[in-house]
Amino acid sequence: MPIEIKILALGAVLLLVHIFAAAHFKTKQYGPKWNMGARDEALPPLAPVAGRLVRAQANFLETFPIAIIALLGVVLAGRNTEWTALGGWLWLAGRIIYLPLYALGVPKIRTLVYLLSLAGLIIAIWPILF
Fold first, then answer.
1. How far apart, in whole angstroms, are the C-alpha atoms of residue 106 and residue 127?
2. Parent domain of 121
3. What letter would DSSP give residue 130?
4. pLDDT tens per residue across span 86-115
5. Could you tell me the CATH number of the domain that includes residue 107?
């Protein structure tokens, strides 16, 4: 099995981590009754950590489809190489590091890590484009 597929599977696990981390902090703030309810009521703004986790999840969801296209695309096109694997690993590592940095509210370094993950995506998708 190409390593790019394994990277995507690990990315899916990371998406679950994002979902459960955000849900945990939202439930901690609003309570289990809210979590198990219809969630129709108006709520106060999220506490800082919960809000950052929700935004980190949304940010991950912006890049995950690109990673799927890039990594699955190179495999389907038969263009996967050590470089596409490296790009995938850079993307995944950046995304793993990004989550706690965002949750803790670390500026600047978080942006650099995000840019590292984007560089990984560019490396991975390059063989499909050129």
1. 34
2. 3-35+46-129
3. -
4. 999 999 999 999 999 999 999 999 999 999
5. 1.20.120.550
